[in-house]
Specification:
Elements: H1 24-54, H2 64-69, H3 72-85, H4 88-113, H5 130-140, H6 146-163, H7 173-190, H8 196-199, H9 202-205, H10 213-219, H11 221-234, H12 241-253, E1 274-280, H13 300-307, E2 311-315, H14 323-332, H15 345-348, H16 357-363, E3 367-372, H17 381-388, E4 392-394, H18 396-402, E5 405-406, E6 409-410, H19 412-425, E7 430-435, H20 452-457, H21 466-496, E8 500-506, H22 514-518, E9 531-538, E10 551-552, H23 556-564, H24 569-583, H25 589-606
Parallel strand pairs: 1-7, 1-8, 2-10, 3-4, 3-7
Antiparallel strand pairs: 2-9, 5-6, 8-9
């Protein structure tokens, strides 16, 4: 029997050719023409939204080719959806809505962070849950929050699905063919194989190695995302053995071979110190900005510690977001730059074992705990911490039972309560990694706070307009809370009478338009700024000379282990390599060798082969 393709709204069975009216082949042809026109409209509208997200004119690089490559992924998905649901127009509408959402997200990211949407950002699509919807919905500032709008959108889609009759035959070559082609295109895209590799080539896409925007401008967002995916699938981390051996030789020339302790290990019988690391969300020094020199210091405790020589400035590979980039470097001691295909390591790296501070301390008999007042699935932390060897992870599940919010998120005070309780209950030396969330944006709204009197008393630079003053006052309120809770944590650690090492650091600067208005004292851009870090210890009896210049984030965990008197060959290597880098002239060829050597060591470390290069 010949396959037919009925128009939406038609409930008549396939007609006999002798019947009067429109014959089945004509009806099928008409449906195909209508669908073809719908796809032309889809491609055109999506391109307009793509250009709008970039804030460029609609005709910028517009052409049949660019329109096609930005609709091809949706077309592959449409073939599958239409064949499964038998409703081609509802399937097309759903894909249009999803791609519209992609462009809305791209425009928001570009506006807030001055950075385009990239392939790793799409990992969020694989972890949609209550926490992620609340986080991203908070930036939309929708009346009533995101949930009513999601429910309405879902109801609309269900209604459209119900109204459109099944117009693809239940059995026949049309449905089976569409399903087979859609499945083949989807599978080959996942495997980064032909025909995608023949369509999204370097010559056609012309990506820039320095910035994602030129490639997106020329090829469109979806085209750029597909090309990035194909490139990432074909890229493999490499160990530059020559650079690693040359780096080891340079360190040997400094008088001590890597693998011999630079610090005294914890002596048998001495109580090992508890080690606490606190990543403070969006923590920065406001006095890096103009206009804060005459305003009460928002971070008095952190500043006093840094001024005493127990901290300093840290370079981070993130701005306005991407907390896990800094978190990864501090917890593992591995530079993000060592893995060119990796943007968000907790999502991009799929290793079942990720070595770092957690595994080193676990091997020394430490209990290991992470604390974070958000979903464990966010940023794939639960799986990543498991791969690192973390024994326990306190998430929003526990926070909902005991914690309090201060503004939109759970307070640093509650996070500190969890840490202190865990230390009190510990029967062995403890390592705690705490990831705060209270100071997470957005900052541009009036929200209920626990201490409105303190909020009203906060001074901000007089040059700020009303909207920017609200943003800065909200930010400083939470920044003060972070500094206050750090001081409380330190006082409690001292009161316990046990040896400890306390590390505190910011992950990145918040994304604020007012940075451009105020300007930074050093004249550099927001992306070039450093964040504060401190390291306090007591009872370890180890004399340390902490770096006086700004350090990379991946050097901080080595300093923490050094303060605790715990030796590890890899952390010893990166400590000495980083120290040598700072002593050499910036134009020295040895600096390049050291950088390549550090990156190669990180790849070897991740692959479990670093020790073989020390033999």
């Amino acid at each position: 029997m010949a396959a037919t393709f009925n128009l939406p709204g038609s409930t008549q069975p396939a007609a006999d050719p002798s019947r009067k009216g429109i014959r089945p082949p004509t009806r099928t042809l008409f449906a195909c023409i209508l669908l073809a026109l719908s796809w032309v409209a889809f491609a055109g509208v999506m391109w307009l939204l793509d250009r709008q997200a970039l804030n460029v004119t609609p005709d910028a690089y517009r052409g049949a080719w660019t329109l096609t490559i930005n609709a091809l992924v949706a077309f592959s998905a449409w073939l599958l959806l239409a064949s499964v649901t038998r409703r081609p127009f509802t399937s097309l509408l759903l894909l249009a809505a999803l791609q519209c959402a992609l462009y809305i997200a791209a425009g928001m990211k570009l506006e807030l962070l001055q950075s385009p949407l990239t392939l790793p950002d799409l990992h969020f699509l694989t972890e949609v849950n209550v926490a992620s919807i609340q986080l991203f919905g908070s930036y939309l500032d929708l009346p009533g929050g995101p949930w009513p709008w999601l429910i309405v959108a879902l109801a609309v889609m269900i209604g459209i699905f119900t109204l459109e009759p099944a117009s693809v035959p239940r059995l026949g070559t049309v449905r089976l063919g569409a399903f087979a082609i859609g499945m083949a295109l989807t599978a080959t895209l996942y495997l980064a194989a032909w025909p995608w590799t023949a369509i999204y080539t370097e010559e056609r896409m012309r990506p820039s190695p320095f910035n994602d925007l030129p490639g997106i401008l020329r090829a469109g967002l979806v085209g750029s995302l597909v090309h990035s995916y194909l490139h990432a699938r074909s890229a493999a981390p490499q160990v530059d053995e020559e650079a690693l051996h040359r780096t080891l030789a340079l360190l040997q020339d400094q008088g001590r071979p890597t693998g011999s302790p630079a610090i005294p290990a914890v002596q048998q019988g001495d109580p090992p110190p508890d080690i606490v690391m606190v990543l403070s969300e969006s923590f920065m020094d406001p006095r890096a900005l103009h206009g804060f020199d005459s305003i009460d210091d928002p971070i008095p405790f952190v500043r006093s510690v840094i001024n005493s020589g127990r901290g300093g400035a840290m370079h981070v590979q993130a701005y306005g977001g991407g907390t896990v980039r800094t978190e990864f470097e501090v917890v593992t001691g591995m530079p993000i730059d060592a893995f060119p295909a990796v943007t968000y390591p907790y999502r991009d790296l799929r290793q079942t074992h990720i070595p770092g501070v957690v595994s080193v301390l676990g091997g020394h008999g430490y209990s290991t705990l992470a604390v974070h007042g958000n979903s464990g699935s966010f940023w794939n932390r639960t799986n990543t911490y498991h791969a690192m060897g973390m024994e326990r992870f306190i998430t929003d599940i526990e926070f909902k039972q005991k914690a309090m919010q201060d503004g939109l998120w759970y307070s640093d005070e509650s996070m500190t309560d969890f840490m202190l309780q865990a230390l009190q209950e510990a029967s062995q030396p403890a390592f705690i990694l705490a990831i705060s969330i209270q100071n997470h944006g957005p900052y541009n709204r009036h929200l209920p706070l626990r201490d409105m009197a303190a909020w009203n008393d906060i001074e901000v630079p007089a040059s700020l307009n009303e909207d920017d003053a609200l943003v800065m006052r909200n930010y400083l309120y939470h920044l003060r809370a972070a500094d206050r809770q750090l001081q409380r944590l330190h006082e409690e650690l001292v009161r316990r009478g046990r040896p400890f090492v306390l590390v505190f650091f910011g992950d990145h600067l918040p994304a604020m338009d007012l940075f451009e208005e105020l300007g930074f004292v050093d004249g550099q851009t927001p992306q070039q700024q450093t964040v504060p870090w401190i390291l306090l210890s007591e009872g370890t009896e180890i004399d340390m000379n902490l770096p006086e210049t700004a350090i990379p984030a991946w050097q901080l965990p080595a300093l923490a282990l050094q303060a605790a008197g715990i030796h590890d060959d890899y952390f010893d290597f990166i400590t000495r390599a980083a120290e040598l880098q700072t002593r050499l002239p910036s134009d020295s060829s040895d600096v390049t060798v050291l950088t390549r050597g550090i990156h190669s060591a990180a790849n070897a470390r991740l692959d479990g082969r670093f020790g073989t290069y020390l033999q």
